[in-house]
Amino acid sequence: MQDRKGDRITSQMLRFQLLNVLGNPYVHIFGVGLPIVLALLITRVAVSELPADDMEPMISTTIYLGMGALIPMAVLLMGYAVSYAQELSKGIPERMQLFGIKKSVLFGSNVIVQMLFLIAAFLLFFLFGCMFAKIERPTLSGLICYILCMFVFSIICLALAHGIACLCKNFGRTYCVSMILYFAFMILGGMMGISYEDLPKWAKIIAKLLPVTYINRDFYQIWTGKQYHYMPMLQSYLFLGAVSVIVLFLVFGRPSAGCKIKISEER
């Protein structure tokens, strides 16, 4: 029986996707450097205004945990979307399909590589946090919950980014949509100096549907093992996850006429 390599993820495919990630300046600037700089800067400013030093670990931990959500947002929602839109404009996925490599296999290899890069980015992020910010030690359940929530949030961001790039099929449109979502998540999640309580009523309704709101506002309680009501945060993950599934369904359910178009153009 003939072995169809296009039906499975190979090491060559993973290496190709890894080179794409490492060669993308957006992920290094906005996904690694910016979260570290913002977290340390905002933490330093917030701590300098505290009336008591014993509040410093709580404030530092709260800010740092919230800023961690910037990593999947920048690396995936913006960086991956822009990079994949450039590949689409050059016809790279269509050419791979001509060699029998399925879209689902391409997407699966992207998931693996992006998750590996995220792990490295988070390790570097918390390394700087332990060195320059007073982050409280988590409980085992709090650490596991944070890792799980960030992993699921990253998968959702990746699915949205992939769908946006496939639907827009253009660098400019993809960049515009991903940047709007990126800053909308930051503003509604309370990362731009506006807390959830200061938002207008209509914005609060939207903010409740975003996991980043609960990561930035409430995760200190989970991190330190305090009692927490998980249902609102779980509902936000289900909502945003359902949106990403619908977007992916629209992408993978459409007939791929791109290959026929490319062939006819070349002829």
UniProtKB/TrEMBL annotation:
Source organism phylogeny: Bacteria, Bacillati, Bacillota, Clostridia, Eubacteriales
A Gene Ontology cellular-component term: membrane
Bilayer topology term: Multi-pass membrane protein
Keywords recorded for this protein, A-Z: Membrane, Transmembrane, Transmembrane helix
Transmembrane regions: 21-43, 63-84, 105-128, 140-168, 175-194, 234-252
Name of the protein in question: ABC-2 type transporter transmembrane domain-containing protein
ABC-2 type transporter transmembrane domain ranges (all copies): 58-251
MF terms in GO: ABC-type transporter activity
InterPro entries reported in the protein's UniProt record: ABC2_TM
Keyword presence, Transmembrane: yes
Top-level taxon of origin: Bacteria
Subcellular location: Membrane
Record-linked Pfam families: ABC2_membrane_3
Species the sequence originates in: Eubacterium plexicaudatum ASF492
